[in-house]
Model the fold of this input.
Amino acid sequence: MAYLSSTLQNNHVFRNFSAKMLSKLTLIITVLLSSLTSFHTTIYAKDTNLNKARQLFSKGEVLYAENRVDLALRYYFAALDLFPSMSKVHYRIGVIYGPLRREYEKAIEFFHKSINCDFQDPNAYHGLGITYCMAGDEELGSKFLLRAGIVFLREGNIRTALSIYDVLIQIGEKHRAEELAKAIEKKDSSESLSLPTMRFPR
Done:
């Protein structure tokens, strides 16, 4: 009888323990499932916003090509409302405010935003450099032009790097022109290309 009583007590304790563990496990699983659902919902929302933003950007590009920049800007800003980290959109807005409208402060702001979204985009560095030069700060402009030239070289775009070299020479930034020239010559020799001889003004 004592054995039977002890067994019954143990079974009762086990059932209580099992019930508590089952309750905890159920709660943990429920929380995990809720988190996964929330995560997938967030990812889906981001993908949806990105697709819509790309469509708006494409429409803006068509308008930009037609020189309807005011309307293009509306589409660009609408794209950023949906997906703020689109480097190309920030870059295009910078081009409109900079070289086209000469609103340099706004242009510089958007070129920097473009770089923050994609620090490997040479176009953003190039646009920023040109804008600083147009605004009268050729020293700072040459810094970003040099950076653009280096990144273009990494992409294999030597011709554009050469055009940036020419700009650096024209604005009198000999030191940075020489630095870019060395990088171009190194790339040239490694790929056995025939490029024009670069001469530095004395």
Q: What stands out?
A: The chain has a mean pLDDT of 83.
